[in-house]
């Protein structure tokens, strides 16, 4: 150390600089050590918390269960001021009549039953907590996560106004990976890759007062943006595919997968897609069979030129398995005005019926059906920002919403295919629909028609 009174020369200034540096280093070291002690204390408390909870639960169970088997309570278990359980109460008086003895025995039995019930309930709660956590982890592990979202895209309009909205981009893929021959959908060798057989946006605004599902025709003519090519077998993205104009919507997914389709839909709608859900044929069938079929109303027999007779009956018909899959896939039905719009209508009706069935007491209060449905959904679903926790959060926020009030819309087109066999978008009408969803204002179909101008008086 240097003496502050010694003559100041170059050597003294140098030593003082070293002293000051060492002092700062020592102070910094002490601060870091203090912070590390605080972090260690927090870690210790967090690590001890589960043990404390377990010990508290075990002690509570002991207080209820041990008296039932004749053991003494642990030392210190009695409340302060209570007499020990094995010492008689000097103020107690023995019953003097048979009626009093009978009442006492009945009271003792009631206490015994209450204690048994409390023990069982406490055990079930304790076990259910662990089982629920393990089940959630297990279910989440079955979801196949695929990169799809871009929530900070410059294509999103009025991003602040969409805070709290839940937008699901739902794709029904015709991927054949893992399909069995008896399913009648082909295999990966005969039909390689994957196309977006069904494309929908499910929109739930922040106030949770409505839900709107917008369907897109698979043959909608679009301009595909530049995207990375996607391998549906591995889920990986690779080299860049150049942009292409006047292509079918389902080819966008075939080339660029979930990312490219999300990018295109956000460009078209301006909506922020914060969930992507892909579902294959096999998963769809499993979900329907898990709830023991879905009932739809059939106005006339559905006879498809490719799939054959799908539904011969009319009126309320319960569809399961292959029949349900063909019902939503059929796009060459005799009598349909176009190949896409008849199928879109059937898909919307079936989705509404499936949602109603899944939210019914028949499923929610049947552990077998509910578990089977979640199993089928998780095992055959892929995407991003989906899982048990997200679904539970969404379901909790939608309590009280009647699934029968979900609105179904179809993106506006001219209604006739062009010379390329594509559906042509009515851009102004589509923009009006998406603006209503973003601003949470009445849908165009809810607004009263504009009256025609009065004819001139002659």
Care to describe what's here?
It is a single chain. The protein has two domains: 10-68; 145-443, LCP protein (Aminopeptidase). Helices cover 43% and strands 18% of the residues. The chain is built from ten helices and 17 strands. The protein has helices spanning 10-65, 98-142, 249-269, 281-290, 321-329, 341-358, 361-364, 367-379, 388-397, 427-439, and strands at 144-145, 166-173, 196-204, 212-216, 221-224, 227-231, 236-241, 244-248, 275-279, 294-298, 302-304, 308-311, 315-319, 381-384, 407-410, 413-417, 423-425. The strands form six sheets. A seven-stranded mixed β-sheet has the order 1-14-9-2-3-4-15. The protein has a two-stranded antiparallel sheet with strand order 5-8. Helix 1 (10-65) packs across helix 2 (98-142) and helix 4 (281-290) packs across helix 5. It starts with 9 loop residues before the first helix and ends in a 19-residue tail after the last helix.
């Amino acid at each position: 150390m240097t003496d502050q009174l010694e003559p100041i020369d170059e050597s003294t200034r140098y030593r003082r600089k070293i002293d000051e540096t060492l002092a700062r280093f020592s102070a910094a070291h002490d601060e870091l050590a203090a912070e590390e002690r605080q972090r260690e204390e927090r870690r210790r408390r967090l690590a001890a918390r589960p043990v404390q909870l377990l010990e508290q639960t075990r002690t509570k169970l002991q207080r209820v269960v041990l008296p039932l088997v004749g053991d003494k309570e642990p030392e210190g278990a009695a409340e302060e001021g209570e007499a020990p359980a094995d010492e008689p109460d000097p103020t107690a008086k023995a019953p003097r009549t048979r009626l009093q003895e009978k009442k006492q025995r009945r009271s003792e039995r009631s206490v015994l039953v209450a204690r048994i019930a409390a023990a069982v309930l406490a055990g079930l709660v304790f076990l259910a907590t662990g089982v629920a956590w393990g089940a959630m982890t297990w279910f989440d592990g079955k979801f196949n996560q695929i990169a799809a979202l871009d929530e900070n895209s410059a294509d999103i309009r009025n991003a602040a106004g969409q805070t709290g909205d839940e937008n699901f981009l739902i794709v029904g893929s015709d991927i054949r990976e893992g399909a069995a021959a008896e399913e009648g959908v082909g295999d990966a060798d005969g039909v390689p890759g994957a196309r977006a057989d069904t494309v929908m946006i499910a929109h739930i605004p922040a106030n949770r007062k409505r839900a709107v599902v917008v369907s897109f025709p698979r043959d909608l003519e679009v301009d595909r943006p530049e995207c990375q090519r996607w391998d549906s077998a591995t889920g990986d993205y690779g080299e860049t595919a150049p942009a292409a104009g006047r292509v079918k919507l389902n080819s966008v997914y075939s080339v660029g997968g979930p990312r490219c389709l999300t990018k295109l839909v956000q460009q078209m709608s301006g909506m922020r897609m914060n969930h992507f859900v892909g579902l294959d044929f096999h998963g769809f069938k499993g979900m329907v069979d898990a709830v023991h079929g879905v009932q739809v109303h059939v106005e006339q027999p559905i006879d498809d030129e490719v799939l054959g007779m799908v539904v011969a009956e009319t009126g309320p018909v319960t569809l399961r398995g292959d029949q349900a899959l063909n019902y939503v896939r059929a796009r060459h039905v005799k009598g349909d005005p176009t190949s896409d719009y008849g199928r879109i209508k059937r898909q919307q009706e079936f989705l509404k019926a499936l949602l109603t069935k899944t939210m019914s007491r028949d499923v929610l209060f049947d552990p077998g059906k509910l578990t089977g449905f979640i199993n089928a959904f998780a095992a055959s679903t892929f995407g991003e920002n989906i899982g048990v926790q997200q679904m539970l959060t969404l379901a909790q926020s939608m309590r009280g919403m009647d699934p029968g009030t979900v609105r179904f819309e179809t993106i506006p087109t001219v209604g006739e295919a062009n010379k390329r066999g594509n559906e042509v978008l009515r851009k102004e009408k589509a923009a009006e629909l998406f603006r209503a969803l973003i601003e949470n204002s009445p849908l165009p179909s809810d607004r009263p028609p504009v009256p025609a101008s009065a004819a001139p008086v002659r």
